[in-house]
Specification:
Shape: elongated
Number of strands: 0
Largest sheet: none
Radius of gyration: 14 Å
Number of helices: 4
Oligomer: single chain
Order of helices and strands: HHHH
Distance between the termini: 54 Å
Length: about 80
């Protein structure tokens, strides 16, 4: 059954996709610093999470994106 998506669904899906993209980019040690220092990248994740607090996909990918940016690379010395 086809159901039309309203602009809210489209915005939610876009937010989820952006969070997922940043999650994937930040999972690579070489990209962590780029993502962390790109103006607006972290704010975009937080804004998406605040904008769709009840959407599990946005919340999951947003949490992983923030976790990946904030985590240390495996095997890195203290």
């Amino acid at each position: 059954m086809n159901q039309r998506r309203g602009s809210h669904g489209t915005a939610r899906d876009g937010a989820r996709s952006r969070c997922r993209a940043l999650r994937n980019l930040a999972s690579n040690a070489d990209n962590k610093l780029r993502v962390a220092t790109t103006p607006g990248a972290i704010d975009a994740v937080v804004t998406a999470m605040r904008g769709f607090p009840g959407h599990p996909g946005v919340q999951e990918h947003g949490c992983w994106a923030l976790r990946n940016v904030g985590s240390r690379a495996e095997g890195r010395q203290k």
